[in-house]
Design a protein that fits this description.
Distance between the termini: 61 Å
Strand order of the largest sheet: 2-1-10-9-11-12-13-14-15
Largest sheet: 9 strands, mixed
Structural class: alpha/beta
Helix content: 25-40%
Length: about 500
């Protein structure tokens, strides 16, 4: 992107404009260090030129494996300025899972923090053709110095900015491409629903491999000139300390985040007087938990979204949190939402129940290099979410269930098919199926039903270890149940409804 670009929605311009206006203001705080807006702009511009000099071309991907770090933020803005696409990978994945995603997204470069460099090296060793790997903490040094006068390429609003990896129902990784314009309009609508000012201090604990790690508060904060306090991991006691010490005004998390904070012995005594608002994603919060935060004078903003919508779709205002319990609110500005009745293949007018369909400038253009999945994701221009909701006569939406089998554990998407593939690979397993049940801490958790091969005795401890070696921890089922055979429908498909009822009834005993 040249400094005089006419494309108004490109994200690189945000940091340039902010650095010009308030260069000495704190943009990022991390581990006792501060990066100003002037430093963030200068560092990202230098990185952008160095990446292009290294041999990357606009449109290519830069994969990362890192905890939340300021260097990662600088790299995002560098990609934005150079026309590259940042592709952050989930550091909870195993080496084979990381290798699979690298093969899918074909990045020109992968950058890892020192903590996660061994995972990247292991993953690259499993590949026949692996991208070069550099140390994220020393990226400027490893890329080498280049002229600060080299002109950056023109970046368009509809160019890709992020690819967020998500597994499909088959367990095959897909990449959600989010453009500069997607992120721009999401943040415009978000600011109208949950305004942010330059005096805000944002605590960022959501990992930066999530769309929420960028597009729910952090990018808006950097646009508005606020300060973002980056935390590499979530530790309840440390978070309470940071809220007190840094006078945090707002933060984003999943219900499990706020449950663990509320259950901490220091919660009732902690100084939360600076905290005006918390945002909740992934699932609705139970009434008791909402009230525990409201009792501390903190507004709770809930909603609904998905990565393909970058991610904001519906928002429940804090004043509606208790009066519309279980609701996820109404559409954000610039977002159209409809309910689709699959029986009649029509959109429902007024109140009713159906699959959530979404339109708007926040909706992604498609999956990376996967035209079949992209085609399947849309219906006459509407994004099909796969989630079923009810809309009341006042226009409030409430999620009823998922048309797809994906469930959310601790804010992380889990696809049963992916877990079932790992279970089926175990030597003593004949058949396997995974369903989800509610969990008091993680929201939902998986229950694995397994059928042992004839004349074998399944060792659940060893089976659990097998899953842990091939799956990220949040994907490993919380329970394993051995049964003689899996129930099936009349057409031979596994009857997940019966298994779910069995799992639910057994868990209540």
């Amino acid at each position: 992107m040249s400094e005089g670009t006419e494309n108004l929605h490109v994200i690189g311009r945000w940091i340039e404009d902010r650095a010009r206006q308030t260069p000495q203001r704190s943009a990022i705080e991390f581990d006792g260090r501060t990066m100003t807006y002037g430093e963030l702009d200068a560092t990202s511009s230098q990185l952008a030129r160095a990446l292009l000099h290294f041999g990357l071309s606009p449109g290519e991907r830069v994969a990362t494996l890192t905890e939340n770090r300021p260097e990662h933020v600088a790299l995002l803005f560098a990609c934005a300025k150079a026309g590259l696409i940042l592709t952050p990978l989930n550091w909870r994945l195993t080496a084979p899972e990381i290798a699979a995603q690298l093969e899918t997204f074909e990045p020109a470069l992968v950058c890892a923090s020192p903590t996660h460099r061994p995972q990247v090296d292991h993953a690259r060793a499993l590949m026949t053709s692996a991208p070069p790997a550099l140390d994220l903490a020393r990226l400027s040094i490893e890329l080498g110095n280049v002229s600060t006068h080299d002109e950056l390429p023109l970046v368009n609003d509809d160019d890709g900015l992020l690819i967020i990896a998500t597994s499909g129902t088959t367990g095959t990784p897909k990449g959600v491409v989010l453009t500069h314009a997607n992120c721009f309009w999401t943040n415009v609508g978000f600011d109208l629903a949950a305004p942010m000012g330059d005096d805000d201090v944002v605590l960022q604990v959501l990992p930066q491999f999530h769309v929420g790690g960028w597009n729910v508060q952090p990018l808006l904060a950097w646009w508005k000139g606020a300060t973002v306090v980056l935390e590499p991991s979530f530790e309840p006691e440390r978070v309470l300390d940071i809220i007190e010490r840094r006078r945090i005004t707002t933060m984003m998390g999943v219900p499990a985040t706020y449950l663990m904070l509320a259950q901490h012995p220091r919660f009732e005594e902690a100084d939360l007087s600076s905290l005006r608002r918390v945002l909740v994603g992934g699932a609705s919060m139970p009434l008791a938990l909402i009230e525990s935060w409201q009792a501390r004078g903190v507004d709770v903003v809930q909603g609904y979204g998905l990565t393909e919508a970058s991610p904001n779709v519906l928002c429940l205002a804090p004043e509606d949190a208790t009066s519309h319990l279980g609701s996820v609110g109404k559409p954000y500005s610039y977002v159209e939402v409809a309910l689709h009745d699959h029986r009649t293949d029509t959109l429902i007018i007024g109140e009713g129940r159906g699959e959530i369909y979404v339109k708007g400038p926040n909706v992604f253009p498609g999956y990376w290099n996967n035209s079949a999945a992209t085609t399947a994701a849309f219906d006459d221009g509407w994004l099909r979410t796969g989630d079923v909701a009810e809309r009341d006569d006042a226009g409030y939406y409430q999620i009823c269930g998922r048309a797809k089998e994906m469930y959310i554990s601790g804010g992380e998407n889990v696809y049963p098919a992916e877990v079932e593939q790992v279970l089926a690979a175990y030597v003593d397993v004949e058949d396997a199926a995974v369903v989800a049940i509610s969990h008091p801490r993680w929201g939902e958790a998986g229950v694995a039903f397994v059928v042992a091969k004839r004349d074998t005795c399944l060792d659940i401890v060893q089976l659990t270890d097998h899953c842990r070696s091939g799956l990220a921890p949040y994907k490993v089922p919380s329970e394993f149940r051995v049964i003689e055979e899996l129930p099936r429908t009349s057409v031979g498909k596994i009857d997940k409804i019966r298994l779910t009822l069995l799992a639910q009834s057994s868990s209540q005993k």
